[in-house]
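Friendly challenge for the regulars: who can give me the C-alpha cells for this chain first? No prize, just bragging rights.
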Amino acid sequence: MTVDYQLLTQEAGARFGAALAVGDFNSNGVDDLVIGLPGHTVNGQAGGAAVVLLDYRGTSWYAPRYYHQNITFFHDATEDGDDFGSTFAVGDFNADGYDDLAIGVPGEDLAGLADAGAVHVLYGGPGGLQTSSEVFLDRSIAPGSLEANARFGASLATGDFNLDGFDDLAIGAPLETVQGAARAGTVTIAYGSGAGLPLSGGQWWSQWQLGAVNELDTAEANDEFGRALAVGDFNHDGFDDLAVGVPRETADLSFTGALNVIYGSGSGLSAAGNLFTPQVVSRQQQSQRFGSALAAADFDGDGIDDLAVGVPYADV
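First reply, four minutes later:
Bragging rights claimed.
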C-alpha cells in the first residue's frame, strides 16, 4: 500500500481526522470523503467542523466544502466543546438516490443542559450536501427527555431495520440515565421516509427494555450501552440488525464489557429474540471493555454478516 494523497491542518487542537466517512452526496458515481475536526475553532469557539471533499481527481480534490454550526440555515451555533464532527454516518434517508450525512454533536448544550448532545442531518442533492434542508435531531425525537451529559450523538450507524427502502439512523447516548441508573446508556432510532428523518416518533432502546425480554441483564450504572454501534444482517432474514456495544458492563468482573444485538423486522427493531452476550467467561479480565468498537461484514463469504468486537484493554 502506498500513500496517494495526504491532507494536513495547521491548527493546534483541531483533531483533524478524528472521524471519517465516505458517501456519494451528489450521486455522480464518485465517492466523496468527509473529515471531522471536532476541536476546530470557529469565531473563537472550539466547537468543531467537518470538511467534505468532493470528487477525487487522481491528484487533487474538487470543490472541498466546509461545514460548521455557524453556517446559515444550521440550527444552533458553534460553542466551545460541542464536538461537531466527532462522529458521522452516511445513508439515503429519503431514498432519493443521493447519500445523506448525519453529523454527531455529542457535546451540544441544549436548554441549559451541558453535553446533552445532538445530530445534524444534511441531505444530498445534485450539488452535494444541502444546508438549506438541514435537520436538527436531539433526544426529544423519541420517548424520554433531554438530559445533561447524556452525549446523544456520541455514536451513529445506519441501516434499513424495517426493509422499507429508506435508511434509518441509530444514535447512541452512552451516558444517559435509565431508570435511575446513571451512565447506563440508550440508543434512539429515527426511521427514514420519503420526507427524510422525522423530528418525532422515534424509537429508543436500553438494556432495561431488552432485559425484560431476554431476562439476562438490565440497565445498570456506568454500563455505557450505545458507546459503539454496528449494522448487519446477522440472521440473514433481509432486515438489518443493530449491534450495540456495552463496554463497561460488569458481568463476573468489573467493566469486562458486553454486546447486545437487536434484530430488525417489518415494524423495525424488535426486542423479540434479542441477544445479550458478555465477553467469553474464560477470557474475561477486569476492565478489558469488550464492545468498545464494532464492525460488521461477511468475513467468511457465507452470505451472512459477521461481527468483529474490539477489546482494547485485554491482556494477551
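The mean pLDDT is 92. Residues 19 and 264 are 27 Å apart (CA to CA). Your move, everyone else.
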